[in-house]
Amino acid sequence: MNKVMTRTRRTPGSRPPVRHDTRRPGGATRTPPRSTPDAPRARSAPPTAPDGVPPPGPRPTDLFADRLVEVLSGRRPVHCMLRHTAGRAYDELARLAERGPLRTHGTRPVVRDIGYYVPRSGAIEAFARIGAGDQLRAMAFRLEQGPDLRWRCTAVELGVPRPGPTAKDT
């Protein structure tokens, strides 16, 4: 089975790992940039690993999960996903976003965990755990690679929260 978990698990409220820059000693300060328009701009080399190989770019599952969360939480309009979807996925996304399932007051929803399965070459079925405060939601989506080698979302589903116990259940 080709199921893969891609993000590390953190407890709510924990901070991300701190970046330790070994190139700059602890007491060094930055020099202010030159403010003249004629000054040549320094170009920085792309970041590389210690072995000289540039790090891989973000996975398409990570990018799409973040984009979908932004749309479903109301931070981005639905039409920004128009060129990133194919088939009926845009209609499904518009229907989901209309209800605003990830809109919260106060805490911003974030992608806590992503996993994916590769059923065949050029297709990825992914799932994500979305957290907002103490709430946890599930989202699933399918990506397919087109003839132009761009990934497009072809299906989106969002898990509905389970209702709490009612008076008749007790």
User: Can you identify the CATH class of the domain at 55-159?
Assistant: Alpha Beta
Please give the share of residues in helix: 10-25%
| Beta-strand residue fraction | 15-25%
CATH overall fold name of the domain at 55-159? Nuclear Transport Factor 2, Chain: A
Description:
By secondary structure, the protein is of the alpha+beta class. About 15% of the residues lie in helices and about 25% in strands. The chain has two helices and five strands, in the order E-H-H-E-E-E-E. A hairpin with a 2-residue loop joins strand 2 and strand 3. About 5% of the residues have low confidence. The chain has a domain of about 100 residues: Nuclear Transport Factor 2, Chain: A (Roll). The chain is globular, with a radius of gyration of 21 Å. The chain has a five-stranded antiparallel sheet.
Protein topology:
Layout: E1 4-5, H1 60-72, H2 89-99, E2 110-120, E3 123-132, E4 135-145, E5 151-158
Antiparallel strand pairs: 1-2, 2-3, 3-4, 4-5
Give the structure's gist in a few sentences:
With 170 residues, this protein is an alpha+beta fold. The protein is 14% helix and 25% strand.
Key features of this structure:
170 residues; alpha+beta; Nuclear Transport Factor 2, Chain: A; five-stranded antiparallel sheet
